[in-house]
Queue: 2 jobs
Job 1
Amino acid sequence: MRKLLASLTAVLFLSVSAIAQTSVTGKVTDLNSKLPLSGASVVVKGTNVGTVTGLDGSFSITLPAKSNVLVVSFLGYSVQEITAKSGSVDIALSTSDVKTLNEVVVTGYGSKIKKDLTGNIARIKGKEIENMPVASVDAALQGKAAGVFVNSQSGKLGQAATVRIRGNSSISASSQPLYVVDGVPITTNDQSTYGGDMSPLTDINSNDIESIEVLKDASAGAIYGSRAANGVILITTKRGNSGKTSVSANYQAGSSKETRRVEFLNSEQYAELFFRATKYTDDFYGTPLNDPSSETTFAKDWMAYHSFDKWLTDPKASYDWQDQAFQKGNFQQGDVQISGGNDKTKFFGSLQYFDQKGIIVGNDLKRITGRLNLDHKAKEWLNLGFTMSLARTTSRRLPDDNQFSNPLQSIAFMPVTPFTDPNTGLPTGAPPGDLNVGLYYNPRLTVDYAKFTQEIFRNFSNVYATAKILPGLTFQSEFGVDILSQNEEGYFQTQTVRNTTTAVRGSGSNAAAFILNYNTNNYFNYTRDFGKHNIDATVGMQYQQSSSKYNSTSGTDFPSNSYRKIASAATKSGGSSSQSDFSFVSQFARVNYKFNDRFLATASIRRDGSSRFGENERYGIFPSASAGWILSEEKFIQNIKAISFLKLRASYGQVGNAEIGNFPQLGLFSGAAGYAGNAGQSPTQIGNPDLKWETTDQVDVGLDFGLFSGRITGELDYYEKKTSGLLLNVNIPATTGFNTQTKNVGKLENKGYEVVLNTQNFIGKFKWNTTINFANNKGKVVDIKGQIIEGGISSMNRVMEGQPIGVFYAVQYAGVDPANGDALFYKNISGTGGQLDKGTVNPAGFNQAQRVVVGDPNPDYIIGFTNNFSYKGFDLSVFFNGVIGNQINIYGMGRYSSANFRFEDNQTVDQVNAWTTPGQKTDIPQARWLFNNGAQISSRYIVDGSYARLRTVTLGYNVPLKALKRLKIDRLRVYASALNLLTLTDYPYWDPEVNADSFDSNIAKGNDFYTPPQPKTIVFGINIGL
Amino acid sequence: MKKYITSILIIAALATGCEKKLEIAPTQSIDQNLALLTEGDVLVTLIGAYDGLQSVAAYGGDIMLLNELIGNRDDIRFTGTFAPLSDAWRLEMTASNTYGRDTWAQCYNTINRCNNVLSALDKITSSPATKSRVEGEALFIRATLYFELVRLYAKTWGDGTNTSNPGVPLVTTPTKSITEADYKPRSSVADVYAMVIADLTKSESLLPASNTIYAKKSAAAAILSRVALMQGDYVAARDAANRVITTGGHTLSTTVGANWYTFINNAGNSPSEYIFSMKVTTQDGANDLNTFFGINAGAGTAGRGDCKIYPAHLAKYEAGDARGAYFSVVGGNNYTRKHLDRYGNVSIVRLAEMYLTRAEANFRLGTAVGQSPLLDVNAIRTRATLPALPTVDLNAILKERYLETAFEGNRLPDIKRTRGMQSGVAWNSPKLIMPIPQREMDVNAKLVQNEGY
């Protein structure tokens, strides 16, 4: 009791002493340009008291009694210490020596100064991705951090990107990182029922983001335990600053087109090749070419039919169906941000309107977001606050790539087929015209006569309270929700009946998803200096529950195309409701120790329990340890003038992957097995009570350095990640009634290195700095217990021991036999001593040829390369990114469109070089109608996917302050920016940054299936600060 | 200190309270141990077996489609871009053919559903009749699928030694966990036929004479007649067909066209002529024959139009044959009208075939059980608005069978059992036998691959 009284007295004393504190306000600017620096850190030396400058560079801070020295730091500038008195103080920073080292980095349940980190955390400032004309944050991360691979998959708006941190560490479970927004692990799995995966990150306004931290190694990630094996991405939103209320408004608009087109045959080339192919077949069967049953007659009739007989009179008329698939996209975005506050209360608010029309016909996305973040100091010992963001995203979605309604599939159309039916003036294939004209369904009809829209309301909200209990000891309690409410509505008019066969009299659908995901974090933080020792400890718990509910209805037989709601459907053709839940209960602890500002150590541990794990394996424990040594604090390094900073660090930890689905451990029967209107059930899953998370052990060693007074800084890292207990859908004989059983078997590893290099090439009036990040990752499947795991187009992606995940496994193409035009394939039969028989077979012997590894969809190197220039009010930023050493499978289109007239699909223009005469050297086999001469699954369709891309280039001009004073505004900036302006690649189809959504899985990467390319977007913008 | 204690209490309360929240049961599915406890459970599992049977990879159409494409290159020009089907049509299949893989897996998936039903018959206590019916239906579905599997994936009955030719693995118990015993070798062709015959015979005895849209006595007899015909056991084939005709309660449709367009013209009901069929509704079921043989040729019709019928086939019908006119011409190509209905029921076996089976068997045996071969053939000819024949021989009977059941999946088995030829390939060519799916070969070392793959 006495102790309690004593501490209460201490608390009282603290509150009293607060009254004696002084308040300082001020403004931080660039020494040269005099422009305000927003986001600079202002900290009272030797304390935790600190703030960040607002948009106009202003700050306000309350000095504790014992100190009056302010430490002011900002990325790229020298740290400045000044002694402040009450009142106003202006600070001008000069560009810098040791940049980034004093930056505060968010670590998960806490934060830390970059210099003191022992794990690998990449920090991306919100500024680096602001105003990018992409809807979703994950796509914006591309090339920004070493070892973070981002592939946007396709140019469809809001499409989910593939994000891999340090390689792919799972085969069957998710390989996407855990996303945590302001402390809440958010819902990131796709909820759409139509088309490819939609990224649930689309509902975040990326201009609200203060910083993104990527926890890459196990030491950084282990505090997220069973959910950190794929890395953790922490998104922290902007908060208010005390001082003047600043208002910033931004507007940008622009337009986009496809990055590239592919050249196809025109009508004359097409007919010539068609006749060449049918002549072969007629000759083969001994049919006279003019016989009514000959293939040549068929070809003539077929071209006449599919051109409304136009081809008979005008064989030169030619139509590039890409004109029907692509459109000029446009883009506009308006933002208003307000921030400000006083000592007690600070706020940040924003509104954004985002409107994009895609480059593929029938694709658009609109989003409106609002946010309010509030922090309030209720008592000297108690801080409270909340964040709330609301978003409404509506988009008109495209079908998945493997649908005839995918606009790009119309490139298969004969070039003789006109866009418009001359008899009706309507799009080809639209009734009352002939529905069957057009080799396939005309996707234009789905654009004109159908609509599939998705509307999402998303609410991220979070409340917190932080109590200072004793000196150095705080307790934080947070409660957050992520509510996702989605409605999808589709209506297909009768005109689309050739594709949507249910739409005889119209077909409609409506589906809803409602996901309530809530989370609470409760933890203590304790910080204390004991002489040269510093300890910083965290202990706490987290509980998360997510509940997803779905329902859908569909109907057919509408009175007319004017009725589009299911209420009007005479036949309610389907209806469903379902639910899926999961929960996690976790406890965690972490200790950071620092000695004499040079020796650093961190240890953490987390215990996770989850409803997803089997009866016998309900809890997992995930430990980590790491250490660092700041060598530049040592005399023997300080003597070396060139070295301004040097730190060695090493870490080890164990993390898990719990993204294994919600009930993978149970033997299940499902009720979805009705017949002819009667309910039925059937076994759907074979159980496994021992099922648990996948475990990844990771070692990381790193070196952080600064040279020549920080003109050159960088980081080098080497890591090894070993994943075991891989969750595999182990193939079992289908004769059991099941195809697979889920088991924790298998091992894989990823090894790699990462290099980050920042240089300041010019400082002074003309500034030029360069940032390069470069990473190499080698993945290898170590053991999959002999399983055959395949996926992708024609099951060509395969998981094989000793190889990276998802290598392309196919027969090796050996070119064309010059003697007869046969396609040739290497036998590759293993002989004695493992020698492969490099003899060849023609199509008749194709079954003899053995498959080998013919490519790898995983890049060897991923690179980001940024150059920033500034001179007076001008600034220029040029950002390249690229991948090297990966292959792409084009069999999806190639088997039809680059297949020397295996089918009557229009062909890529190179196919005119198909073999014709003995002795001819070509890589394209003879055209043989209805014969498979080289269109077999082979390495003919595996091509290099390396590319370098001018991802963004931005040129801006800041109107000088003098001119602004008269206008009474703080800042005026105009800029022009381009996305994907230039792509350097040998890739033969549209875009090498590709992965067909219809086939996408962990192992099915690098597939192209008429996949829309990335947009090339140019925008102009203006930014005003008040 | 109070704050400290309060915070500790908050954490402790949350930590202990939340542990219980880890017990979450699935909402859509149920644990297998809870799935077959009552009679009702067994009955819905039987419905689940029909659902499996109706999958596109099985009797939703692919079994018939594969039998037509592999067996009928002479009549069908397959132009579609579905490469696995195109390969089948060109007799260039590889072991990784996805249709071969999926049909195999779907048949066994459905067999497992049947085995679940058969393992829980003791739960049926309401009446012996119900128990017999359920057992009969499950045995019927299982035996029928084994018969389809052995015809597609193994050598023809009588091509070499049936007792040593590998058939397909026989699984007769439900799979509840995976053990070494689940890695089964192929049973011999003879063993598979023996089990099929035993199951169908028992099924015929157990099934009721009428059973709405589900398998009834006549269905088991009809498949038995097919099995016997495949074996050249004409007595058994004749007698089984005769049982269907005389006691099955089926009647021939009055016109050729009345057998089709079940959804558009017949409210989704199968005609009396159908002995067994899969019912398609707007909500459930699919007709993959429609997908590939069908085309847009009027309201309610649909399809990819991939199977174009050569003019040469049409020339085989006599003038005035209603069946010869039963084609739609779209874009200069002929499409059979049997499969145009988007929601048309999928006919598995119909009465006309029984007449022709009885005629053929009687003719070969020199008997006239039930009816003379001539009158049986003429019954079918008359329905097709053709004049009655004065006499009949085996070729006439087989031709009638070929034209009557064209594009319904009988072509390949008929070529094989009559030792015929197709597109220059003899009945016993390995090219007419589907490969054991590569996936199965990879996972089960006890399987042997068919010749040529």
Job 2
Amino acid sequence: MKKIEAIIKPFKLDEVKNALNKIGVQGMTVTEVKGFGRQKGHTEVYRGAEYKIDFLPKVKIELITTDEIVPQVIETIERAAKTGKIGDGKIFLSPIEEVVRIRTGERGRDAI
Amino acid sequence: MQFDFGITPKGLIDTKNLMAQAVSTHSSPREFLRQHSDMVDGLVRKAFQKAQSQISTPSVCLIAVGGYGRSELALYSDVDLLLLYSSSQKDKLPPLIEKALYPLWDLGLEVNCSSRSINECLKMAASDLHIKTSLIDGRYLDGEYEFFRNLYRLFIKKALHRKVRRFAEALAKDLHLRHQKYEDPVYALEPNLKEGEGGLRDFQIGRWLIRAKYKTDRWDSILFPDHSRMLEKSLQFLWAVRNQLHLLSERKQDDLTFEWQEKIGPTLGFPHGTEGVEQMMRQYHLSTQRISNFVEDILDRALREPSPLKKTFFFLGRRKIDENFGIAYGELHLLDPITFKRDPTQMMTLFEHCQTYQVKMDFRMEEAAIEALPFVDHCFRNSKKVNQTFLSILRKGERVETLLKKMHELGFLSRYIPEFSEVEGKVHYDLYHVHPVDSHSILAVEELERLREGFYQKEYPLLTSLIREIAKPEILFLTTLLHDIGKGMEGNHSLVGAEICRHIGNRMGLSAEERELIGFLVSHHLLMVETALRRDFHDEQVILRFANEVKNLNQLKMLYLLTFADIKAVGPEAWTSWKNTLFMELFLKTSHFFEKGVVAGPFLRGDETIQKLQEFLSPEIISEYADHLPDRYLSCYSVEEIAHHIEMARSIEKQFLLVEWGTEKETRAKVTICTKDLYGLFSKVTGTMFLNRLNILEAQIHTWGNGLALDTFWVEDATKDIDRRLRQFKKDLGEILARKVSLKDFIFKRKESNGIKQKVIPRVSGEVKINNQDSDFYTIVEVTGEDRLGILYEMTEALTDYGCDIHFARISTLGNRIVDIFYIQDEWGEKMVERQKIEHLKQALLRRFPTGEGIIS
């Protein structure tokens, strides 16, 4: 089992969600987050005064999948979230030791 | 609140798999879907009844909708339910739904349930297309039957049979939007069975529309029997593939990716390996093509039907154009329905009229044409009148692509040119060829048309002016349509194709000269690619040899245009600006040769170049360097460039490495590297470039007599970050050459960080060709194989290890296939001729490919 975390541009969320749905991914957790990478932040001018915008709003998607479909999930997110411009985001992959579904007590693959 | 179905989730999956195998899914895929759906019916009813028995229940009715409603439930598809209730009892619903659905979810079924009253259903059906279409396929499952009957009585009267035209418009829009999403060439190679063009959803659109417009569920009743049979076969095929896809992947998977193409082929009786995949995907393309034609036809009938008012005043907008055809409201129609049977040649006239009057044909006309297809026979194909008309359509050149597409769609093209049917739906299992051969050929014609219309005026002005000046455009268009026709046959497709084309030309009544021209173009349609992308033009001989084959300027122009159309039609990224530059250079050099009798370009003799250098440099400097400059070096650069290189060389005394570059269009740069030559320098440079994600397109490698290396590289970075990458490259190369760090360590680190299983893509087998004929001074090594990180570095390393000196390299990438050309000499500065040595070198290169195997020729 693997956890895939993707930080993407907020307006791409629907597209990514639909694309994942199409390949049979059933559940995910979505969080609104803020951060910056190479995109840094930028300065906006409002009525003559400069405001520094440090952290940019992003969306984080987390999902747990079985190992077999990891490449397809990553490719799907990559394809759907890409604009080709700076700030498209990143995808992280990490191993998961155990999953428990609280209501039924199922563990492992069955609980995903 | 555990619920006992007498089956566990695991057990359910096992049962499904057993069922799938028992009905042998591919022989009767539809039957399997029905059985599966019946089984799920049982579970759903059981859950529903049990829930009803546990709580005081309102009177409700349970209905299956969508694909499940049609009893076409694929293994892992959603089970869509609708719960109808009488509006007074709304609050009692949630506990009922909860009790009924939880156990089904726990069983692993993807159940979706919406609950609505009859009025809500009708209201929502009027505003939401998807709710309306899912209701069309509703099926009673359990509960109050009276509710079901009432809903459908009202739904059919108030929603389905009303405003059919608006329904058709909405469906057409939905179809169009969905296809747009799947327009990306990626989806042509790895299509989505359900939502892609010609997929299962498209078929449903046609079916729903038939239900609305013709008030029948027998979609086949409004088609010709032949057509409905073929359509049914196509559907069965798509279902068979989809069943296997769900069965093997154990999830709701509708993308037919490479991995599954390879796995499913054999389960449906296709051979293992590439050949089987190609056969299966051909059948896929033919099937989706039929479904596309079907849905287009049905949409056409619903959308183009004139309004009653127009029908009444039909005679007003009507105009007769000859004794057989008339035009009304921008559409061509037949005056007498049996015209085509009386005189089949009128079918070609039909297309000519469409072109001349810029009109479409009405759907009755299309039907008449389809019905008359059997009359397109030997006689028809040999008719002088027909062939003249066809050629004149091509000559006029307007909307040719649209007409060819229509001919193809109606099945007329493959009756008129039966040889064309061999390439219909034919695919290559690789990443480069996106379209099947038939679509590719028609797209190539479209590219020519765009060129002629001036669509590419700004980007490709030379090609645009060339297509306007060629004498016989119809021959070019015909050749472009037929250039890959040999692909349906065994053997070298260019040569076989040329033979077929001569034969077709003969039948069409072309002159001997025209037939020879087509034969030449088809048999040589890869020559320009092979020369421009794989040879060094700085070698005069390359141009002479190419000119010799092409023979004259007219053939050169035609070949250049054909090459453009052919590559451009492969996919949106195939004709890169880099290729454009190379082809243009080859064309210009060769045409100059035809016109002036000499090869143009920087082919000054060595001493002339030295003479000219005096304009730039002092005599002392020239005399210091003149003897060191090899002839090949002098022929590769302009005098200005050479003068600049000498200045670089003079400053190298202080610094041991100089790297300069000029960028072009943000993505491409010409990099000049000047340093003291050392063993394996080229391989170190390519390795460092690889580390910095610079893609090498071409390399010129020169060593001066005084031991100085002067190399120029054309590199590319698609992410438009080339300056930053080159700066880093310069720094890294400095450290590597100064032995501060080891390249091998760098590359090893770069490779090991890869925890993701690689996606399955078509394999490319390695191939090495050694050519000693095409150059007087160099052995040309041509390596083809599967692209992967750092492959070029490894190739150059292998060549260096083998004592080869690399002088020129040109690299092209076609999907995941690389073609690398190296001009090499052995350690004594000679060509490599010894058989055994060549054999060893080939083996050494092939070993660098992942599979370690390949074809040797």
